[in-house]
Structure formats: C-alpha cells, structure tokens
C-alpha cells in the first residue's frame, strides 16, 4: 500500500489525483466503516455513510486543511454523519408518535360512521336503478370493464351502454343529493 504523508495526501486530494484518493480510501475506509457500524448497527447503512464521507471529501477537496491530519478529519466526519443520521431517525420516530397521538378516536369513529352511512345510501341508490342499468353500471364501476367489453358481454350496442351509464349517474346524483 502506498504510504503518503499528510501533506502529500492533502495536495493529492486538492489536485484531484485519483491514485492518491484511492490510496486514502483503501487505507481509511475500513476503520471508518467500523466506526459507522458501531453507531448505526447496520452494515449497509454504514457502507453508504463511508461512501458519503469520501464523496464529501472529494467535492470539498479545495477546503481541506493541510495542517489537520486527514485521518482525524475523516474520523470526525464519519462520527458527525452517524450522529446526524441518528438524530434524523429519532425526529422521524417522534413525529410518527405525535401523529399517532394526535388522531382523535372520537373523530375517527365519527368519520367511520359517516363513511358507512354514505356507503349504505349509495348502495340503496344503486339498488333502485332499473335491472339492466344497474348491471351496466356495476360492470363499469365495480368490475372496471370498458363500455366495449360491457356491450360485448351483454350483447347490446355501445351506445346503449353509454345511455345506461348516463342514466345511472344522473339517478345516483339526484338520489344522493336529495338524501343529504
């Protein structure tokens, strides 16, 4: 393995020397990975974090301080990355818990009751439709068939299918609005 001084590493990274960067990666990535695994307890996430640190090093090469040892910089960077990831996960957990606590069971029951009531009114309105009209409507809306497929299955013209759908929608609209 190529042994470089801190000044050579900084100079090589600043000039975007890929050989130097690769040597630094090979030298320091395993120890950074071990640090990350201890913090986040997930090998894949630890690998991603090491990659992120080296990407940040490459992108910010011109800001690298030649007086500070690169290994110290990388160690501090991986620890900060881990801590930020942990904080982000904790914030997500807190937010999720808050959202669950903010759900009012009374409002939920009321919404459920309203939904069931509306569904019953809808079902009643559909049941009042003429037989063929109801069949066409259910094939279209519940089974998801196209007007052409309905026409073929019921052996009626496509215009008749459209007429039944128009009639069904008008009657449902009137029936549901009148009961509101």
From TrEMBL:
The UniProt entry, under InterPro entries, shows:
RNA_pol_sigma-70-like, RNA_pol_sigma-70_dom, RNA_pol_sigma70_bacteroid, RNA_pol_sigma70_r2, RNA_pol_sigma70_r4_t2, RNA_pol_sigma_r2, RNA_pol_sigma_r3/r4-like, WH-like_DNA-bd_sf
For whether the record's keyword set contains Transcription, the answer is yes
Q: Name one GO molecular function term.
A: sigma factor activity
Looking up Pfam families in the UniProt record yields: Sigma70_r2, Sigma70_r4_2
Record keywords, A-Z: Sigma factor, Transcription, Transcription regulation
Domain RNA polymerase sigma factor 70 region 4 type: residue ranges: 121-172
- Entry keyword annotation includes Transcription: yes
RNA polymerase sigma-70 region domain ranges (all copies)? 25-91
For biological process, the GO terms are: DNA-templated transcription initiation
Q: Which Gene3D superfamilies match?
A: 1.10.1740.10, Winged helix-like DNA-binding domain superfamily/Winged helix DNA-binding domain
The Swiss-Prot or TrEMBL record describes its family as follows:
Belongs to the sigma-70 factor family. ECF subfamily.
> Which PANTHER family does this one have?
RNA POLYMERASE ECF-TYPE SIGMA FACTO (PTHR43133), RNA POLYMERASE SIGMA-70 FACTOR ECF SUBFAMILY (PTHR43133:SF46)
From the Swiss-Prot or TrEMBL record, give the protein name: RNA polymerase sigma-70 factor (ECF subfamily)
């Amino acid at each position: 393995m190529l042994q470089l001084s801190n000044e050579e590493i900084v100079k090589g990274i600043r000039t975007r020397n890929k050989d130097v960067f690769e040597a630094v990666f090979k030298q320091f990535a395993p120890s950074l990975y071990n640090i990350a695994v201890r913090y986040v307890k997930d090998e894949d996430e630890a690998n991603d974090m090491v990659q992120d640190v080296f990407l940040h090093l490459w992108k910010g090469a011109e800001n690298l301080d030649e007086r500070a040892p690169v290994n110290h910089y990388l160690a501090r960077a991986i620890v900060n990355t881990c801590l930020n990831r942990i904080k982000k996960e904790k914030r997500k957990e807190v937010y999720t818990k808050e959202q669950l606590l903010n759900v009012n069971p009374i409002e939920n029951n009321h919404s459920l009751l309203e939904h069931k009531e509306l569904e019953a009114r809808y079902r009643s309105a559909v049941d009042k439709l003429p037989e063929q009209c109801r069949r066409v409507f259910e094939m279209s809306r519940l089974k998801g068939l196209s007007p052409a497929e309905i026409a073929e299955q019921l052996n009626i013209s496509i215009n008749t299918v459209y007429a039944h759908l128009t009639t069904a929608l008008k009657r449902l609209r009137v029936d549901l609005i009148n009961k509101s």
